[in-house]
Structure formats: C-alpha cells, structure tokens
Amino acid sequence: MKVGSGGFTLAELLIVVVLVVILAAIALPNLLRSQIAANETAAIESLAKINRAEVQYQTTYPTIGFASTLGALGPGTPDGKCREKSPAHACLIEAALATATSPEHTRSGYWFAVSPTSRDAGDVVTGYVATAQAGVLNKTGSRDFCSQEDAVIRYSVPQGSSVPANSAPACSAMTILQ
To answer: What's the pTM value of the predicted model, to 2 decimals?
Structure first.
C-alpha cells in the first residue's frame, strides 16, 4: 500500500495562489506605468510628426498657410492610402494619426487636434496649435501635450477632466518638455 498519492494538499495550493496574487499586485502597477510612459512617448512623437507635416503643408500651399485640421494633413481615404494630394488631403501624415481626433478614436491612447491660432490680412493661416490629450486620464496617459509653429512641445498635468490647449496663450502657458 502506498503512503503518498503524489498530489498537492489544499494548503500547498493556497500558498501558491497567495504567492501568485502577491506577485500580480506588485507587477501590475509597474506594467500600467510603463504602458502610460510608452503612450506618452508615442504622443510626443506624433506631435513632432504633425509639426513637420505643418511646415511641409505651409511650404506646399503658401496661399493657405498652415493646415487647420488633422484631416487636411492626412490621406482622406477610407483605406488610408493617398490617392491624390490636395489642400484638403495633403497625405503628409498617416491615416491612423489623421483620424485620432476624439477620445473614442485614439492612437496609442491619445487623441489629437489642430487649431488655427492666427491669420494674416489675406486669410492665410500663420499660426496653429497641435494638441494631444489622453483618451482616458491616468489609464492611457497622465499628461496633455501641445505644440505650436515654433515646434516646441509643452505639457501639463491635468486635474480631472481637462480641455485641450487650443489657443496660443493656453499652449504657451504649459511647461516646456525637456
């Protein structure tokens, strides 16, 4: 007759479950923080792309100036492929970025907007603000970002629900990203 059956006792299984729960409790916050950091880095890179696209747009269409919307910088087709460049769809940024314009439609946890801030006497757009805002604050990102025609990226830490910095003074008041 065998004395041990080779299985686990209930106490041993409970110890293993408790250890797994403790490890998960330690690892999960770190994983979430690293995901937020990755999303914020992607948002900063996307703003840099928007800034480069705005300069190209202004150079290509000097009678219009800077683009007034993300859609004007993107391809403007359902499949995201550039068919024909025009002021309405200059094909300077990818479709995924051009359509990430609301908390429901994000790119790497952030949504983006471009707003004209100034025009000259001929109605040429001479200034813009590009913004990036977390889709879900403190889950997909913990900072808002903005940039203007000077291409300096700035940030703020929103308190509760925030409004994107869609004016030059609001963006200028934010802290410069180092």
So the answer is: 0.84
Q: How far is CA 171 from the centre of its chain?
A: 16
- Fill in the amino acid letter for 36: I
Report yes or no: 66 and 51 within 8 Å, Cβ to Cβ: no
Give pLDDT tens digits along the chain (178 positions).
555 567 888 888 899 898 888 888 887 777 788 999 999 999 999 999 999 999 999 999 999 999 999 999 999 888 889 989 999 999 999 999 999 999 999 999 999 999 999 999 999 999 999 999 999 998 999 999 999 999 999 999 988 766 778 899 999 999 999 8
Other C-beta atoms lying within 10 Å of the C-beta of residue 50:
27
The boundaries of the domain holding residue 18 are 10-176
Q: Rounded to whole angstroms, what are the CA distances from 154 to 7, 139, 148?
A: 60, 20, 9
Q: Which helix (H) or strand (E) holds 26?
A: helix 10-60
**Is 2 within the bounds of a domain?**
no
* DSSP, residue by residue, 48-107: HHHHHHHHHHHHH-TTTBS-SSHHHHS--STT-------SS----S-HHHHT--BTTB-B
Q: How many domains does the chain have?
A: 1
Let me know if residue 148 belongs to a domain.
Answer: yes
